[in-house]
Every structure is written in C-alpha cells, then in structure tokens.
Amino acid sequence: MSNSEGMASTAFRVTIDGDIAIIQLIEVSFAHFQAQEFDRLTDVLRDKELRRFVVDLSTCEYIASEGLTCTAAFWKWCHDEGNGAMTAIIPQTPGNEVKNLFDIIGLSRMIGSALQPTLSQALRYLKEFA
Fold first, then answer.
1. Which position among 16, 60, 76, 112 has the lowest Cβ density within 10 Å, counted as fewest Cβ atoms?
2. Are the beta carbons of 42 and 72 closer than 8 angstroms?
3. Would you give per-residue pLDDT tens digits along the chain (130 residues)?
4. Which CATH architecture fits 3-129?
5. Domain ranges of the chain
C-alpha cells in the first residue's frame, strides 16, 4: 500500500489478504513508539472498514505495558464490542517474555483459541471460524 493510504510504518508491516488485515511487528520490541504506531494503523484499517485482523507478534522479544494495553484494547474492540475478529500470534519459545506476560496478565486466556502459533493457522482460524 502507498504512503498516501496511511499504511507506511517503520514498526509494522501491513498486508491485506482478501478482507483480512495482517499487522506484523517488524522490530523485536513493542514499546511506546510501536504502541502509538499500532493504534494509528488500526485506526486507518478501521476507517477502511476492515473487520478481521491478524496481529503477528511472533518476532517480539520485549513487550512493554503500552504494547499489552493496545493489543488488549484492540481485542476488546473486535471481540467484546462485536466490531470484528482478531487473532494474535506470539512467540512460542519457552521462557519468552512476551508469552509469559500474555499468560500472567490473562491475555492468553482472554484471547483463547484465537491465539494461534503461526500465520497460516491464524488465517485459517479467521476464514473458518470468524
């Protein structure tokens, strides 16, 4: 997508697969700047009336409270408020800080079966179940 569409970002890569927006973290950290970019990008995507999303954090090694907050808020907007569907991909390596924090704060339990291990499984989940 071009810069004029508001999708250019140094922190995330956005790809559209049919009616599913794939938001992939480029960096290994999801902190303050990345959280601001995530909020901006999801606003642009909502304005484009996309309603199914994959949030791919599989490369993430560090997530700050802002990253956790905006991920949880976006899940709430999609799921709890009935605006769409979202899956998330987090690193599956034992001891990974991101996975541990998702578990500790209950985000893993909240997202439940929508927490997928790979991009292909996340897309399949959205296409078949959401």
1. 112
2. no
3. 333 466 789 999 999 999 999 999 999 999 999 999 999 999 999 999 999 999 999 999 999 999 999 999 999 999 988 899 999 999 988 888 999 999 999 999 999 999 999 999 999 999 998 7
4. 2-Layer Sandwich (3.30)
5. 3-129
